Amino acid sequence: MSNFSSQSQSWPATATKLKDSFNTQLWDSAASLYRDNSTTSLHLQDGNALALLFSLTESPSQAALVSGPRRELVRDEPPCPELPDTTPPFVSGIEVLGHSAANELACSLELIRRLWSYMLDALQFTGSTLVEGLSANGSLYYRSSAGCNGDASYTSLSHGWSSAPTQALTMEVVGLKIVEMGGRRWFLSPKLGKFEGRQRCL
Fold it and tell me: pLDDT, tens digit, for every residue of 56-103?
């Protein structure tokens, strides 16, 4: 443990340097999003979601800038430009948590309503959110043109990797957070956002 303790003294400075480099190399001010790398104009869903989740933005206003374009993408087209014709619940779950971390709860709730409500209601998803992924038109042809040869039978209905809304709704909306091991201390700070109908009954 002593080695880790001594190393920990340098971690904050290293993290700051890494954050500065990340923003210098990858921030696209015209799009208000992060690029995949310094030679492309592709703005990945996972990269921008992780930037929000890990607080790589340099200010709350920059975080809000990232949330804005991402929200428009969710409204208007499939949210995952790195995998055309694909909507992955796993990556979208990271985005839900990222918007929550950036205090853009309305963006989180909108994405949950659009994707997770669809997965719960659509007959092909067995009334659960355990589907591996779906295509842009909402069918089961996940990654149909990226390794699955257009065959829906490749798509799993038992992937437990889209549970991020449970965390976001519990910890960010209801605001229940454990702050000490074993649950000895916790706090409750609800941020209820805009709920309609039965959604008010938390």
Answer: 988 888 887 787 766 655 555 556 888 777 888 888 999 999 988 888
Answer whether 115's CB lies under 8 Å from 131's CB.
no
* Residues sharing a CB contact under 8 Å with residue 196, sequence separation 6 or more, in sequence order: none
Q: Which amino acid is at 193?
A: G
- Write the DSSP string, 39-107: T-----HHHHHHHHHTT-SSSHHHHHHHHHHHHHHHHHS-S-TTSTT-B-HHHHHHHHHHHHHTT-HHH
Rounded (5°) CA angle 9-11-13 = 95
Q: Shortest CA distance to 18 belongs to which of 61, 60, 58, 48?
A: 58
Q: Work out the average pLDDT over 127-138.
A: 83
**Taking the mean position of all CA atoms in its chain, how far away is CA 113?**
14
Structure confidence by residue, pLDDT tens digits, 42-61: 888 889 999 999 999 888 88
Residue with tokens 């994707």: 115
C-alpha dihedral (180, 182, 187, 189), degrees to nearest 10 = 110
- Among residues 27, 22, 137, 162, the alpha carbon closest in space to that of 86 is found at 137
